[in-house]
């Protein structure tokens, strides 16, 4: 067995993945032998791992400079890729940089340069202008969800970055969009295309829920009662609408989180954490959540508002029926509302009377210690089991960050755990524990 294959098996084991899917396997074989690769695959099919595996295999362990740079459209996607790369446990340093946090924090983390740098176009371009790091050894350039970066207005920064990476030998572009147009400034000559965009379409069902009134809030609540306790996303077009929908769901005692661009970064991150660990089974979101964020398997999405373009409709729907799982996209439509041309007439879902969805059994606790404090997930789990007295089946998902951690615990034991664990020591460090 070659060392590359052996290393790959070890990485997959650490990630809890038995084997690569066909798209990932094709990318693993194509990227090492191709200078230009365009990877097209639906949201949620594992594109991150498909390019990280071959990139890591090409890194020089003796190099102390940045060797690969990954440009992404959002902070959430930067954080997500950094998390995956760290969990691969390869020994190579990885950092992400993005707007919304102090530049000084970036400089501290980059004082010891990573092998892989992940970042949003604006923040990476800013670092290049300030000569924070050298591009001399950067050989691999990834533009992840590149069309989204262009769509939200980062073209000038992307041109600036591309022009700065004059020693790049390999370019990898990814997208989840049909008929994507690759801009000339990227300089592709003869790219290899890996196209899996047709995969997953058959698993997705699109149905309509009819609202008798133009104000669809009451029908939305009836729909959520009908769908029951399943993870789902409700898409709105505007952040003001999200607030209105959120207030109405709160009034009806339906637990949920909110996710949109106007939120502070810490609130956006925590909304996703609580959605991933089951504290909230519902997320009300704008199109910011339609791709490039790490969320669990979702059984349905609801278009509370219809998007303005077919691409947004496709990307929203791509949050469900992922990785060969079934899922349903519901269009919440006023009976007098006309559908746009890009949406075909589809089956109407009959809403049956039902009780409110049950509250989640989970709550999320914040722990004020993370990787930089040499704290591991095992340390966090041990604290909850030994000091907190939890049984093994009572501890949910743990997410470990650089300076903190989050753990899902039974809602009935939150006060008990805070009383036992807050202001105690973990790895000789005093920690805070509180509910978020």
Care to describe what's here?
The chain has helices spanning about 5-15, 20-30, 45-60, 75-85, 105-110, 120-130, 145-150, 155-165, 215-225, 240-250, 265-275, 310-315, 375-385, 415-420; strands spanning about 35-40, 70, 95, 115-120, 140-145, 170-175, 190-195, 205-210, 230-235, 255-260, 280-285, 300-305, 325-335, 345-350, 360-365, 400, 405-410, 425, 430, 435. It is of the alpha/beta class and about 425 residues long. It folds into three domains: about 5-195, P-loop containing nucleotide triphosphate hydrolases (Rossmann fold, 3-Layer(aba) Sandwich); about 205-350, Rossmann fold, CATH 3.40.50.300; about 360-435, Alpha-Beta Plaits, CATH 3.30.70. It has a seven-stranded parallel sheet with strand order 3-4-2-5-6-1-7. Strand 12 (about 300-305), helix 12 and strand 13 form a beta-alpha-beta unit.
